[in-house]
Design goal:
Blueprint: E1 7-11, H1 15-27, E2 31-35, H2 38-48, E3 52-56, H3 64-72, E4 82-86, H4 91-99, E5 104-107, H5 112-122
Length: 133
């Protein structure tokens, strides 16, 4: 863990998405916490206090909407930006995401630019570190 590194949580039941996001984010100096679903995430959020959370909508047990609502209903975390991830680019999904308090919506597959753009939009103090790969 780097001192003062931005803590980013990625909640997705897809190992590929988790790994892709983790690789991209670590390259720019973020600490990445991953979770496989909402239940897994909620325990980790309390421990790690991420600066921003990316959450997949379609997940078993606790979906992205429910997870986002639980995060936003907790006074300690309601100010934490939550970005919804979905493979569907639907108006209904975006509207539902806003209702539960999400801050932005990204359609999968997302690019590195979209991922970093979302972080910069919601965590203005974020300065990506371009590390030589």
């Amino acid at each position: 863990m780097q001192e003062n590194a931005l803590k980013v949580m990625v909640i997705d039941d897809s190992k590929t998405i988790r790994r892709t996001a983790e690789t991209l984010l670590k390259k720019v100096g973020c600490d990445v916490i991953t979770a496989v679903d909402g239940f897994d995430a909620l325990a980790k959020i309390a421990d790690s206090h991420p600066n921003i959370i990316f959450v997949d909508i379609m997940m078993p047990r606790l979906d992205g909407y429910q997870t986002c609502a639980l995060i936003k209903n907790n006074s300690a975390f309601k100010g934490t930006p939550v970005i919804m991830l979905s493979s569907k680019d639907g108006l209904f999904d975006k509207a539902k995401g806003r209702i539960v308090g999400s801050d932005q919506y990204l359609t999968k597959p997302f690019s590195k630019e979209e991922l970093l753009g979302a972080i910069k939009a919601h965590v203005p103090e974020f300065a990506p570190v371009e590390q030589a790969s």
